[in-house]
Write a structure and sequence with these properties.
One of its GO terms (molecular function) is glucose-6-phosphate dehydrogenase activity. This protein has 504 residues and is α/β, with parallel strands linked by helices. The protein has helices at 43-58, 79-87, 98-105, 117-133, 154-164, 187-198, 216-226, 257-282, 291-303, 424-427, 436-446, 455-473, 490-498; strands at residues 8-9, 12-13, 33-38, 67-73, 107-111, 142-147, 174-179, 206-208, 240-248, 313-318, 336-342, 352-358, 365-372, 389-395, 399-407, 415-423, 480-482. A hairpin with a 3-residue loop joins strand 14 (389-395) and strand 15 (399-407). It binds NADPH dihydro-nicotinamide-adenine-dinucleotide phosphate and 6-O-phosphono-beta-D-glucopyranose (BG6).
């Protein structure tokens, strides 16, 4: 594996960059690393957090001598019970390999409530005991708290951590808190949550995770845009007709209906995952690769987004969604949405950014489609079959391809659509693409906040969607029914056509 903070490009190593490396790389980090997973009994913890920690451990990023992991939740279970719950979610977990068993031995479990001192005092004791067993001097420990919990308990949990579980002095080491989405339900609630957490922790201690920022091809966007001369002059309103950022899932909200119905697809996917991708596609070149410079540019894009117009939104709900007993019979919650965003700046004026997300559709896919304008004075117009389109497929099967018009091979002089194709499985055979959570947890340990959402960024993101969300919540905007396994409501395709998207 590449050493911490180093980038390699095929056989040619990249130089270490300011941001891709550890922020504190000149200060060697010492002391134990304690990773505390709060909500350890839950779904996210077993499916994502622990497997990501295991993969980091396997690759040597979590040193056996320094690290320990503590699960915390209300459920009364033993260390072994927690290990048994996790085992099946680890690669080859059920085969009891040495790696798996050694990793599981790093995990301890403490049970307690989320708002009473006793549990957190016991948690602090468990962490401290480990630190002392490793001869760590007080104050040099590193404590990472991962809140795999419903956001309703973030404030009391943060208060308890602050009161009872902090790294004991500021001589070295640190305490960091990782929080999951959803960060609030609208601008007001998000700001309230931010203030409550902000009173307890400084911004550099807070890691608001959006796992889309950990995906390989999302991380590639900066490099693609700013390290390739080819794209620099093309990436603007003069050449680009529209940009689509699409998320599709071919399954519904099974098992999560209760959660989903309170949030809907805009809060679940668009306001966070797709908007983060939009920022990276649309932002100006940052001054440097320092996390703050990158995040400054993302905030500017968000602040330049114009209010969303009702006629540029289509909402849908798949038939059968309300059969879930945890979903109310009269629910209007959208499971599908298409919304057009307009960025009011010199680069993007007049270019529609189409954000589309849906559950229970015909395929599972997440992609960015940058569609170029028609060729001016086109001499092939009687034969031409489509526009240039640059597609970045985030998942599945990561790929980038450019749709081009070429001469149809042969004696005839005719044109055809073809692709310049960079499919990762073919080009990078044998290279394992890390899981998003794996990368992001590693960043939290390194102290690199580049791929995390800053407070002002979150505020600007909620500002864009809150008026629309309130209209939906008030029943002013109806979700159209669509068949599971379809493309979603036909009205969404009509909207795309209206704003100039041409099927290629
Ligand atoms: P769970 O519903 O599984 O909750 C996690 C744990 O929190 C539970 O095991 C339970 O532990 C405790 N808990 C549950 N409900 C409450 C409550 N009302 N009050 C106090 N404690 C409660 O959640 P997930 O693991 O699915 O998600 C955790 C966080 O991650 C959420 O913010 C979610 O939105 C986010 N997330 C989840 C994803 C997923 O795939 N699951 C994906 C992306 C984000 P105990 O009762 O033992 O204390
Ligand atoms: C989560 C959403 O944030 O992302 C889920 O809450 C969704 O509804 C999931 O299924 C999709 O993540 P991925 O990485 O599978 O695209």
């Amino acid at each position: 594996a590449a050493a911490l903070g180093e980038w390699h490009c095929e056989k040619r190593p990249f130089a270490k960059s300011e941001s891709f490396a550890n922020n504190n790389e000149n200060v060697p980090e010492t002391g134990c690393l304690s990773i505390i997973v709060l909500g350890a009994s839950g779904d996210l913890a077993k499916k994502k957090t622990f497997p990501a920690l295991f993969n980091l451990y396997r690759q040597g990023f979590l040193q056996l001598n320094d690290v320990h992991i503590v699960g915390y939740a209300r459920t009364k279970i033993s260390d072994d019970d927690l290990r048994d719950r996790i085992r099946g979610y680890l690669p080859n977990g059920d085969n009891g390999t040495e790696d798996v068993e050694n990793f599981l031995l790093l995990i301890k479990y403490v049970s307690g409530s989320y708002d009473a001192p006793e549990g957190f005092q016991a948690l602090d004791k468990a962490i401290s005991e480990h630190e002392f067993s490793k001869n760590s001097t007080e104050g040099s420990s590193r404590r990472l708290f991962y809140l795999a919990l419903p956001p309703s308990v973030y404030p009391p949990v943060c208060r308890m951590i602050k009161s009872y579980c902090m790294n004991k002095s500021d001589l070295g080491g640190w305490t960091r808190v990782v929080v999951e989405k959803p960060f609030g339900k609208d601008l007001e609630s998000a700001e309230e949550l931010s203030s409550q957490i902000g009173e307890l922790f400084e911004e550099p201690q807070i890691y608001r995770i959006d796992h889309y920022l950990g995906k390989e091809l999302v991380q590639n966007l900066l490099v693609l845009r700013f390290a390739n001369r080819l794209f620099l002059p093309l990436w603007n309103r003069d050449n680009i007709a529209n940009v689509q950022i699409v998320f599709r899932e071919d399954f519904g909200t099974e098992g999560r209906g209760g959660y989903f119905d309170q949030y809907g697809i805009i809060r679940d996917i668009i306001q966070n995952h797709l908007l983060q991708v939009l920022c990276l596609v649309a932002m100006e070149k940052p001054v440097s690769l320092k996390p703050e410079h990158i995040r400054d540019e993302k905030v500017k894009v968000l602040q330049s987004v114009l209010p969303i117009k009702d006629e540029e939104v289509v909402l849908g709900q798949y038939e059968g969604y309300k059969d879930d007993p945890t979903v109310p019979d009269n629910s209007n919650t959208p499971t599908f949405a298409t919304a057009i965003l307009h960025i009011h700046n010199e680069r993007w004026e007049g270019v529609p950014f189409i954000l589309k997300a849906g559950k229970a559709l015909n395929s599972r896919k997440a992609e960015i489609r940058v569609q170029f304008k028609d060729v001016p004075g086109d001499i092939f117009r009687c034969q031409k079959q489509g526009r240039n389109e640059f597609v970045i497929r985030l998942q599945p099967s990561e790929a980038m391809y450019m749709k081009l018009t070429v001469k149809q091979p042969g004696l005839e002089m005719s044109t055809a659509q073809s692709e310049l194709d960079l499919s990762y499985t073919q080009r990078y055979q044998g290279v394992a693409i890390p899981e998003a959570y794996e990368r992001l947890i590693l960043d939290t340990i390194k102290g690199d906040q580049q791929h995390f959402v800053r407070r002002d960024e979150l505020k600007a993101a909620w500002e864009i969607f809150t008026p629309l969300l309130h209209r939906i919540d008030n029943g002013e905007f109806k979700s159209l029914q669509y068949k599971p396994g379809s493309r979603g409501p036909a009205e969404a395709d009509q909207l795309l056509e209206k704003v100039g998207y041409v099927q290629t």
